[in-house]
Amino acid sequence: MKNIVFLFLACVLLFGTSCHDKTARTELDAFKLKQNIEEQNKQIIQRYWDGKWNERHAEILEELQSPHVVYHGTSMEMNGLEEYKEVYQSYLSAMHDSHLTINQLIAEDDWVMSRVRLEAVHKGDMEGLPATGKKVEVDIFTVFRLVDGKIVEEWEVMDELGMMMQLGLELQMKEEINE
After folding, report:
1. pLDDT in tens, 68-126
2. CA 130 centroid distance within chain
3. Is the distance from CB of 145 to CB of 153 less than 8 angstroms?
């Protein structure tokens, strides 16, 4: 009888451990998959920034953005890849000798946050501002949402005031401008 009870307890322990191991293994596999997706998304954003500003290849937009990408910026909104490419081309023609440094990439699920610094020389017309030949350094914080390896949304905060001051513009009160 003692042998039967011992055998029964041994089976219960083995079965319980086996179930626990399967659950732990499933959780570990899900965690590894999530980590892989997050790492892939960070690599996509790395390629995006490098292609966009360091290599200056407009083709990177079509490769890594959804045709329906939505951009939310501090001073503008863009809907769709075609509008995004037009605005990018205007900045590309205005800002030369560009170099972008990625300071930080953080990923969670389908989201990637980047903290970057863009350095460039203002050698072309930019939204009505003639070329100044001045070098600018601008900090940019961007949150991207990716779906199936494509950027579908982008929220961006850029130090536009700091950039304009580096270009020699001064901030004035509206009353002073109208007089």
Report:
1. 999 999 989 999 999 999 999 999 999 999 999 999 999 999 999 999 999 999 999 98
2. 30
3. yes
